[in-house]
Design brief:
The chain is α+β, with helices and mostly antiparallel strands and about 180 residues long. It has one domain: START domain (Alpha-D-Glucose-1,6-Bisphosphate, Chain A, domain 4), CATH 3.30.530. About 35% of the residues lie in helices and about 35% in strands. It is built from five helices and seven strands, in the order αβααββββββαα. Helix 1 crosses helix 4. The longest helix has 23 residues.
Length: about 180
């Protein structure tokens, strides 16, 4: 009986070591990206992204907490516009700031999450005119420390975050096309 327990313990240790080695070999960075076509000119869509108050009318990440506290700072839109938020465990706590804005073509942001996990990521929206439509791409990228790599073994973060991007882009589309 003791021999069997020793073999089981050794097998478990080997599985844990293999899992940790697999996680360590995962990429040190990540990128999640989704795009959609919107039947509106880029000039109509851009202010809905470059103004954070407008963005929060379609941003799916603020929805899970109707009592979320948001404090805006800096200019109303464009470079330097920022907001902090604090909410329940689903929305967490953090800050986002527009670091660059090229009218009707690109908005870059720095996202600093404090809760539930610390993270410092780059967010970028690009608007590409395509005939009567505009292709809007929402992307997020950043470093992926070991703990995040380990989580991606069990959780498909691209699908989870990408699903939120798709939901937000759908709402942005509905607003811009109205």
């Amino acid at each position: 009986m003791i021999d069997i327990l020793i073999y089981v313990a050794i097998a478990l240790v080997l599985v844990v070591v293999a899992l940790l080695a697999y996680a360590a070999a995962r990429p040190d960075t990540f990128r999640v990206q989704r795009a959609t076509g919107i039947n509106a000119p880029a000039e109509r869509i851009f202010p809905l992204i470059a103004n954070l108050k407008s963005m929060n009318t379609w941003n799916p990440f603020v929805e899970p907490d109707p009592a979320i506290k948001i404090a805006y700072s800096g200019p109303d839109s464009g470079r330097g516009a920022a907001h902090t938020w604090s909410g329940n465990s689903k929305v967490g706590e953090g800050r986002i700031e527009i670091t660059d804005a090229a009218p009707s073509s690109r908005v870059a942001m720095r996202l600093d999450m404090h809760k539930p996990m610390k993270a410092h990521n780059a967010v970028e929206f690009t608007l590409q005119p395509n005939g009567d439509t505009t292709t809007v791409t929402w992307a997020m990228s950043g470093r992926q420390p070991f703990l995040a790599k380990l989580m991606t073994v069990f959780i498909d973060c691209d699908k989870m975050v990408g699903g939120q991007f798709e939901k937000g882009l759908g709402k942005l589309k509905a607003i811009a096309e109205a």
